[in-house]
Specification:
disordered C terminus; 11 helices; 7 strands; Ionotropic glutamate receptor C-terminal domain-containing protein; about 10% strand; transmembrane helix; glycoprotein; single chain; signal; Iontro_rcpt_C; D-Maltodextrin-Binding Protein, domain 2; about 325 residues
């Protein structure tokens, strides 16, 4: 009896390099010509595909919102920006305290703004309502300068389409006028001072200006925020869950396959496990009649059993 042996082999396509290439291809939504065949591989592959789908979709949506907001943001951030340009016209109420402030100011920036307004008489309005309406209908080409208290109140009213740019230009107080020598003067002074020190004036302003606002101040924020970890925490939980589940399934598969290979090839369980672990790294293994070759050669999967050909003479 002459026995000849033919050597069978099987390769593991998902080596470390190919696994990294598979991960990159899935993230770039390109894919590769390799697909996982084991249950654990399909679980982790599906979790990774779902993760990349949500991440790419969220990034695209956030980028679109960011670019939209960039076009909406006004290039004027302060009174200096307003004074340096001529494309956006600006004015005040004719005869009001704001006009008087610019007319009497000795500051160069405000002087330049007054020269601009005084050379264009049409920028002045007769009422606050006229100036505010001009702002709403000018499509960003007109700015109305008015007292900060009035400005803050208007910005909190419907249709919520105006906003305050920059800081206050000046700080002036208002007083209650009484006749000369009136006994009400001291009583009013003490009452107003008491309201201010107790914080009643600030609470009243907050109540009627901001708490009673008809506008959602969150919608007036023209800045878009970047995606934070809390925004995408859910998808990371799904990815982590998929990885843990795939590792558990892979461990069960590894132990089961190693036990089956050891029984078929009549090897110890530890040798079969070492062979399968080596195959996962190097990509393949060889086996001939249940005997493993030297470590320099690749070791074959136990499913690829030796084939014996018997020739009887």
């Amino acid at each position: 009896v002459i026995e000849t042996y033919t050597k069978s082999s099987v390769t593991n396509d998902f080596t470390i390099c190919n696994s990294l290439w598979f991960t990159l291809g899935a993230f770039m939504q390109q894919g590769i010509d390799l697909s996982p065949r084991s249950l654990s591989g399909r679980i982790v592959g599906s979790a990774w595909w779902f993760f990349t789908l949500i991440i790419i979709s969220s990034y695209t949506a956030n980028l679109a919102a960011f670019l939209t907001v960039e076009r909406m943001v006004t290039p004027i951030k302060s009174v200096d920006d307003l004074a340096k340009q001529t494309e956006v016209e600006y004015g005040t109420r004719d005869g009001g305290s704001s006009k008087e402030f610019f007319e009497r100011s000795k500051i160069s920036v405000y002087n330049r703004m007054w020269e601009f307004m005084s050379s264009r008489k049409y920028v002045f309005t007769s009422t606050y309502e006229e100036g505010i309406e001009r702002v709403r209908t000018s499509k960003g080409k007109y700015a109305f300068l008015l007292e900060s208290v009035k400005n803050d109140y208007i910005n909190e009213q419907l249709p919520c389409d105006t906003m305050k740019i920059g800081q206050n230009l000046n700080s002036n107080g208002y007083g209650v006028a009484t006749p000369m020598g009136s006994p009400l003067k001291e009583r009013l002074n003490l009452a107003i001072l008491s309201l201010k020190e107790d914080g009643d004036l600030a609470r009243l302003k907050n109540k009627w200006w901001y708490e009673g606002s008809a506008c959602d101040r969150d919608t007036q924020d023209t800045q878009t925020n970047a995606l934070t970890l809390s925004n995408v925490a859910g998808i990371f939980y799904i990815l982590t869950g998929g990885l843990v589940l795939s590792m558990v399934v892979a461990l069960i598969e590894f132990c089961y396959k190693s036990k089956m290979d050891a029984a078929r090839a009549k090897l110890s369980l530890s040798d079969a496990m070492k062979a399968k672990a080596r195959m996962s790294i190097t990509g393949g293994k060889d086996m001939d009649n249940g005997r493993f070759y030297a470590p320099a050669s690749q070791i074959l999967d136990g499913d690829a059993l030796h084939a014996n050909t018997h020739t009887q003479v």
